[in-house]
Amino acid sequence: MTDESRKSIHGQWSSRLAFILAATGSAVGLGNIWKFPYITGENGGGAFVLVYLLCVAIIGIPVMMSEVLIGRRGRRSPINTMRMLVAEEGIPRIWVLLGWAGVVAGFLILSYYSVIAGWAVAYVFRAASGAFDGATADGISAMFGDLLGNPESQLGWHTIFMVMTTVVVARGVRSGLEQAVRYLMPALFVLLLVLLGFSMNTGYFSDGLAFLFTFDVSKLSGAAVLTAMGHAFFTLSLGMGAIMVYGSYLPGNASIAKTSVTIAMLDTLVALIAGMAIFPIVFAEGLEPAAGPGLIFHSLPLAFGNMPGGSVFGALFFVLLVFAAWTSAISLIEPAVAWLVENRAVKRRNAAGLVGVITWLLGIATILSFNRWAFEFEFAGETKTSGIFDILDILTSNIMLPLGGLAMAVFAGWMMSKSSVLDELKMGEGAMFRVWYFVVRYLTPVAVGIVFLNLIGVVTF
Ligand code: TRP
After folding, report:
1. Multiple choice CATH, 4-455, 1.20.1740, 1.10.10, 1.10.1670, 3.40.50
2. Does 97 score more than 50 pLDDT?
3. Distance 203 CA to ligand 1 centre (A)
4. Which of 23, 264, 309, 415 has an alpha carbon 20 to 30 Å from 258's alpha carbon atom?
């Protein structure tokens, strides 16, 4: 097949740089700025960070290369890409399920992702209006509790975020996704650097650095290793077809290896800068690094509220979080929208609207998880208190993404012919290729297999 006949009907990125911006936009999100700091705090800092970095480098980058190459080979939505490659390569049809699982995972993840992003939207206005100024721990705690306990207000913020997401996806690959990231990503970097500069002046910058980068093996539990590895998938947007569908819009001649390395490095850089910006503030205010998911929404407003210029910096911080979440959210529904456009001859605008409405409706379950529908259950020895929200998070991050990532590696490593893989990677058959091929064929299946077996209790660390 020629490169021309392999062009996606949805268009292409205008350049490799545009793809890098879009994929980095997908990767950098609540995972980096909200989740990475709090799981680092919970798992004791430096040692956890080191394992996370190793997982990104050793498993994340090779799996990302697999996902991009599968996407570019198929040049269609993940479901149709799998259909096409299954036919072309004579692979069992069951693999098409991987495309469907990705679409389902995208709906599920975005349904709760949008609710949390909605909190961030709410906090932009709270910070800007000076609601945090001079606040006490009790006051901030009550403010967060009010939001969690108020489904109507959360529904409003969730609606705003879903509309933002749907509008961008409706505009399509070039005028929608690409235009959004072209401006949002550089803005994000600038805002992070502003926040970093602010943190350097708290007087606690070195404490923050020491926390993030001092390696203490005694703090490295088996559970921490597993958490670090799972987060590598989540933060790089791997395992559900988001990177696959972005790869399907990648011009045929761009190097997949270099591109994947660049994206992973930018994503990691943002997580580390976010950590370096947040922990000095946490220490300056004498807060608890292991405070959990509330680290940002509960503790940072308190920190901002008691610092000079805090309402400006606080508002900037939450604007940044919304931007990051926005460019991630669009990638979560792009696989479903692309499929509707291909198979149902629906206009992209209508497809985005339909997918947006379904996700918005699903999000209501997450909103009610924190109030009217709240219930407790036990998972892996921990008590979860937010019912459906926790179930969705566990189902997607702990089960669907690792299995999806494993499947992508196996698909590229064992199912596709070596010649198609070589043809798509365009990196020759040298040492780099052989390392990658070994990792996706053996290392990734074994490593992810262990994570999964641990989850279902067959293997225990
Ligand atoms: N990577 C994003 C973050 O860190 C979230 C995300 C976007 C994602 N698309 C994804 C996670 C696809 C898994 C799969 O916030």
Report:
1. 1.20.1740
2. yes
3. 33
4. 415
Determine contact, residues 244/23, Cβ cutoff 8 Å: no
Whether residue 369 contacts residue 171, with contact meaning beta carbons closer than 8 Å, is answered with no
Q: How does pLDDT run across 22-74, given as a tens digit for each residue?
A: 899 999 999 999 989 988 987 889 999 998 999 999 999 999 999 999 999 99
CB contact at 8 A, 228 and 43: yes
Sequential DSSP letters for 131-164: TTTT--HHHHHHHHHHHHT-HHHHHHHHHHHHHH
Which DSSP string do the residues of 22-45 spell out, in sequence order?
HHHHHHSSHIIIIIHHHHHHHTTS
Q: Considering only CA atoms, which residue is closest to atom 14 of ligand 1?
A: 237
Tell me if 235 CB under 6 Å of ligand 1. yes
Q: Which comes out higher in pLDDT, residue 205 or 216?
A: 205
- For the Cβ of 242 lying below 6 angstroms from any atom of ligand 1, the answer is yes
* Alpha carbon distance 97, 331 (integer Å): 19
In terms of Cβ atoms closer than 10 Å to its own Cβ (0-12, 13-18, 19+), residue 126 is buried
**Residue range 69-85: mean pLDDT, rounded:** 95
Two tokens at 116? 């949390």
Residue 2: the pLDDT is 44
Say how many Å lie between the CA of residue 53 and the centre of ligand 1.
Answer: 17
Domain ranges of the chain: 4-455
AA letter at 246: Y
CA-based Rg of the chain, rounded to a whole angstrom?
Answer: 21
The rounded Å distance from CA 146 to ligand 1 centre is: 28
Please answer whether residues 335 and 79 qualify as being in contact, where contact means their C-beta atoms are separated by less than 8 angstroms. yes
CA gap 412, 338 in Å, rounded = 22
With H, G, I as helix, E, B as strand and everything else as coil, classify residue 377.
strand
Give me the half-sphere count of Cα atoms (radius 13 Å) on the Cβ side of residue 347: 5
CB-CB contact of 325 with 30 (8 Å):
yes
Of 278, 274, 271, 302, the closest CA to residue 208 belongs to 278
Is-contact 248 8, C-beta < 8 A? Answer: yes
Closest Cα partner for 456 from 399, 415, 407?
Answer: 399
The answer to whether residue 261 scores a pLDDT higher than 60 is yes
Nearest atom in ligand 1 to the alpha carbon of residue 242 is: 12
* Mean pLDDT across 222-248: 88
Pairwise CA distance, residues 287 & 178, whole Å: 39
Can you tell me which atom of ligand 1 is nearest the CA of 240?
A: 14
Whether residue 321 has its Cβ less than 6 Å from ligand 1: no
